[in-house]
Amino acid sequence: xxLLFDFFPILFFFIAYKVYDIYVATAVxxxxxxxxxxxHWLRTRKIETMHLMTLVIILVFGGLTLYxxxxxxxxxxxxxxxxxxxxxxxxxxxxxxxxxxxxxxxGKLSMPSAVWRTLNLSWTLFFFLIGGVxxxxxxxxxxxxxxxxxxFGMLGLTFLFVLLQSIYLSRHLPETTAEEE
Length: 181
Fold this sequence. Notes:
By secondary structure, the chain is mainly α. Helices cover about 80% and strands about 0% of the residues. The protein is built from seven helices and no strands. It has helices at about 1-20, 20-45, 50-70, 70-90, 100-105, 115-140, 145-170. α4 packs antiparallel against α6.
């Protein structure tokens, strides 16, 4: 459910693009991102760093897209967001005592630090790779293709990556006994 909540601005962007155009879709994505942050804050009284960073970036790049009527700015947003996340995950290998992925999941899972580092580096590489793929698609394909990739390609690649991560994690999780259950 959380993943769906995280991706609903992209879904609204996609629908608005198909019905109207890139500029209406950009305005819808901005509004959806604001709503996303507000709803999460109203439910938890916290603002997730990922949502806030994404909101700031979409306000900047979406705002430039609308103000300058240049769709290249909104196309850059996924690359910037993913490369920023990749940089934060990479820096967490050396700063703060815990990797970013351990900070996010450590309360739910207990694993050796080497596993956390491997998991964190795989997310780092994923973020840099998906940002690079977005750059490639936005540079060499039509806006229609880019919008389809943004929803289906990026979401599909993310689901595949999470599935692969789950398989990797399952090898490192402690087994529960019948008494523990």
